[in-house]
Structure formats: structure tokens, C-alpha cells
Amino acid sequence: MTMSKSKILISAIGVTGVIAGSVAAYMYFKGGPAGDISGAAGSAKVVPDEAFMATYISTDPKVWAKLQQFGTPEAQKIIAKGLEEFNQDVLTDSNISYEKDLKPWVGGVMIAMLPPTSTKPAQLKLPSANPNLPPVTTQEPNVLMVVGIKDKINALNFANKLKSQKGVTTKEIDYKGLKITETSGKGQPTYTAVLNNHVVFAPAKQTVEQAIDTFKGQPSFASKEGTNSILSKGVVENTVAQIYVPDYAGMVQQLINLNPQVQQQLPPQTLAQLKQLKSMVMGVGIDDAGVRMKAIANLDPELVKFQYQNSAGKVVSQLPADTIAMVSGQGISSWWSAFVEQSNDYPEFKQVLEQARSQVKLANLDLDKEIFGWMDGEFSAAAIPSNQGILAQVGFGGAFIFHTSDRKTAETTFTKLDNLAKTQQVNIVQRNIGGKNITEWQIPGQGSLITHGWLDQDTVFVTLGGPIADAIASSNGKSLNDSENFKTVTGSLQKPNGGYFYLDMDKTASLINRFATQNQSLPPETSAILNSIHGVALTTTSPDKSTTHMEMLLALKKKSK
To answer: Smallest Cα–Cα separation from 114: which of 50, 57, 56, 54?
Structure first.
């Protein structure tokens, strides 16, 4: 939607900006109208089946009220101030108040994206990829907004208030026995129609006509294969928003068709790759841990090359409790094999792959066998705090842990790397940490740069910075698995899973403040928001080859008393 259309929609209708822009902040303090996730199915019945994507926003006060249990007093003041300023702007621009004008009747919002109509003119001209050709024209998808009506009397009062606004004119158009209201404000008109318990809005009259046709019996978004079963049930607890993409490859193709320039430049192999993902539903909800997002992707098992593996999670217990951030998973060698196989269909990837193999071969190493081939078990990459040695300036170092069933090949690889380092005037030193023999690369005048060693028969580690090796190799203290913050942030995520992304926000904020003070300190508003977050965690699972689940949690701190 162009900027001019957005202004029309806000000034003439007063719904999109108020609901989509302020409902989260408003509900944080005020609560709001009913309209839970069960209303999505009803809204989808008036959305034409041509829609390639739809988003439903809940306005159920019980759901949004969950946010009230989180946040520091500083963060609450910031949100309250932002809400007040927003309401002032809305009142000044359109004399519309969410609490007085919208809250009494709005019962949930669905926003759908449809292909542009054949009569819709191109909205944007872009330079052609070929300078000898004229500029290419692009079109934007049509937008249809469906708002549930929980109180028709209050909805009528709101419509009458819009008609009485200065500079706003309305005209009624008959279409198949129903009225379409054309509302003109400061620019192009906007069209609305009441369809039983829903009111539809669109900047194009033909889009509203399509919605009326759907209401009268034409195929709807709700009738699309695989859509109806997921519309009325949320994928997360206390759903506040949910996105539906019933045909992912079709949606991508639709968007590509709208931009001929992209269509010309996109290799056919890329579109074939996208066809692996058949459909997707993603939900955002609020529960006792914070804000949670889940996505369910349905895959084509015939096209998926990578074989998903669950991770046992042992690597988490091999990292120190004060770890700042961590990524873990399973089977790098399998990922690499899938990438190599798929590169055969992509000449540009194949070229990069061959160049990488050639560069590694100069170091007498085989990229496939001696770098990635032995990484067949769990792995992790982590940032760990340290203020010693060469890490004193940055405050942290890095650690990599790999489980392998082929220790012999891994040892050969590290021996070759050590020999290569010697030719670069790097001192190779052996030392013992907690009974473990560690190899250390030392730079004259700078100290330890890289270390590597074995934690047990099947586990090798590499660190950036000598002090990190001590944190990994010594068994003193608690592990990340024992960290209360790690338990808080990841404890409610689905298990078993394929590994984690984990971020400790307190430790991250400390590092951010450390670097910020060198130039300018963080704004108080930013610090207050960061201080309200425990951390972020993400994981994936795959019940079978045709389904993948992704879950992310923004873990929030409980409201201070």
C-alpha cells in the first residue's frame, strides 16, 4: 500500500492506523474489545480465495491483558508516554479516539493480500535492468481489511461521526443489492461495505466487490485446502496475531509477477527451491513467560534434501553458566552434504564451492572430508565473557564445540592447521588445563589467540582467546545448563528439538553499554526496554520430513512491585 493510500485509510476510515498501530500499546494499559482467534474463521469467509496471505489481529482484552504482568516501572512509563502521544496525534489528525469510537464495537481484524485487479494501473516505474529498454512497471497487491462488528449500534455511530468530519464526503454505490460506501478525504477514495457481522475496507472498489461476491457464495479464503483447519485454533496460547500462507510458492510467484524486473533476474532454480515450503501458519501469543512466536511449515518431502536430526543437548552442559549467547545444533556434515548436492542446480553456488575447495587445498586440506566431514555430531558456537589478555578490549571471546565419531580425521585436520600456523610465525604451545592437554596459538607480544583441545574422546573445542579455553576445559563452576536465566528463557520451549539460539539480554546489554560509553551512552528509553527482557531463545523441531515447527520466546521480566 502506498503512503498516500495509508493516509487516506487513516483519515477517512480511522481504523488501520489506530488498530494495527496502537492496539498493543493500548491493550497494555487499557484492555480492549472482544475478538479472539476463533473469529478468524468468520473473517476469512468474506475474503476471496485469490488472497495469498492473511493476517488476523485479536482484540480480546483477556489476551492483551497478559502484557500487564511484565515490565519495569521505567519501561511502563515509556510505553504510557508513547501511548499518550499517539492518542494525541490521532485526535489531532482525525478526531478519532480508540477508547470512545472503536473499542465499543471492533471485534478483531483480518488483513488480506490479493493480486492486483486487471484494471488497476501500475503504481511505480523502476529503471529496467537493461538501460536500452524503457522502465518496467510494477504493481502492488490489493489490500482488504475485514473488521468484526460486535456492536452494530456503536459501529453506526462511528460511521456517522466519520461522515460528519470536515473535508470528508461519502457516496453510496449499489452492488448486487448491497451498499458500498465511497469515502473521499484528502486523496483517493476508500471503499467500505457491511457484510452481516463484518465491515470490509479497501482502497480499491473492485476489492470490496470481490468481498461481496465471496459473501454471496463465491469461494473464500476459508475454503482453501488446508486453511480452514488452522483458522479457528491458534498455534500459540493466548494468540494476539496469526499469519496464514496456504500456498507459499504461489504467494512468492504472485509477488514476483508484480515486479517484472525481479522476475527477469530471478533464476528458475530459486523458485524451485522455494517450492520445498508448501504452506505456513505463524502465531504470536502472550503467556506467563513473555511473548512467544510459533510457526508451522508444511514441506514437500520429495524436494527436501536435508535430513533433520534432534539434538541431545549435551553441548549446553559443556559451556560455562555465564555464556552470553549460544547457537547449537546437530550434524553440520549433513548440512554440508545437502548444500553440495543442491549446488549442482545453481551454477553461481557451484563456482563459489569450487573456489573454496581450491583455497583450502592450498593448505593441504580437503574441504569436504577434513573440514566438514567429521562434524557429524552436536555442535555449538558461543560468546563467553572475559576481560583478560587480548579479550580485555572487547569483553568477550568465542568458543566452538564439536562432537564427532571420527576423531582420527579431526586430529589430522588440527595437526595440519597447527603446521600452517607455524609458517606464519605463530608460536604453538602445549599446556594443561584441568588434566586436559591444550594446544595454544600465541602471537608474539599479544598472547594467546586460538586454542584447541579435546574435552573427552568424542568432543573437540576451539576457542578465540586463551582465557576462554580455561572456562571451557576446567570443570569448576556451573554449566550453562544450570544457569537460572537459561532455564527461564529456554525451559518452556518444545523438546526434543534440533538445538537452540540463546541470548542473555542482561549480559548483552552490559556489553552494549560498554561500547556505547566510548562515544555516547544508550538513551534511557532503550536501556529501560532492554532491562525488561530476560533474553531471547529460538528452536526448531521436525516431527516428520514434511513438517517443521519453529518456536521463539522473548522472555520478559515480571512487573516490579
So the answer is: 50
Q: What is the grid cell recorded at 55?
A: 493476517
**Bridge partner residues of 239 (DSSP):** 285
Residues 149 and 155: beta-carbon distance below 8 Å: yes
Give 367-396 pLDDT, tens digit per residue.
999 999 999 999 999 999 988 878 888 889
pLDDT, tens digit (0-9, with 9 covering 90-100), for 93-147: 556 677 777 777 888 899 999 988 764 444 444 444 444 444 445 578 899 999 9
| Residue with the three cell numbers 491493550 | 27
H-only helix segments in 306-455: 332-343, 347-361, 407-422
Burial class (CB within 10 angstroms; exposed 0-12, middle 13-18, buried 19+) of 479: middle
Res. 539: pLDDT tops 50: yes
Q: In this structure, are residues 286 and 292 in contact, taking their beta carbons and an 8 Å threshold? A: yes
Q: List all residues 6 or more positions away from 383 whose beta carbon is below 8 Å from its beta carbon.
A: 323, 324, 325, 326, 396, 397, 398
Q: In 3D, which of 417, 427, 409 has the Cα closest to residue 466?
A: 427
Q: Is residue 493 classed exposed, middle or buried when 0-12, 13-18 and 19+ CB atoms within 10 A define those classes?
A: buried
Q: Where are the alpha helices (DSSP H) in 279-436?
A: 332-343, 347-361, 407-422
Give the separation between CA 326 and CA 521, rounded to whole angstroms.
26
The x, y and z cell numbers of residue 478, run together, are 556451573
